[in-house]
Design brief:
By secondary structure, this protein is mostly beta strands. Helices cover 4% and strands 63% of the residues. Keywords: Ribonucleoprotein, Ribosomal protein, RNA-binding, rRNA-binding.
């Protein structure tokens, strides 16, 4: 069993071939692929965490879709002053499918 820990969208994610994950918006190349940097590689009993060896490891992912997260409502209120503020936010997200780890 081969899996890797990659840096994707500001977080670290454990991935293996065929897994689908949702990360902060990333820009794909012309074919719709993204290369993610590996932080750790586990290949059976072998665990690789050396930076020089991990520089040769490539984790490629295919962009399935760009989407937006759920709406978050931000409200501020100060008592007796008449101050209230309401603001919304939706995070830009990308859904990726891991295609290859080598």
């Amino acid at each position: 069993m081969v899996f890797a820990v990659v840096r994707a969208g500001g977080r670290q994610e454990k991935v293996e071939v065929g897994s689908v994950l949702t990360v902060n918006r990333v820009v794909a190349d012309d074919e719709g692929n993204v290369t993610l940097p590996a932080l750790l590689l586990v290949d059976g009993e072998t665990v690789t965490s050396d930076a020089d060896k991990l520089a040769k490891v490539t984790v490629t992912a295919e962009v399935l879709e760009d989407l937006r997260g759920p709406k978050i409502v931000i409200q501020k209120f100060k008592n007796k002053t008449g101050y209230k503020k309401r603001q919304g936010h939706r995070q830009e997200l990308t859904r990726l499918k891991i295609t290859d780890i080598k």
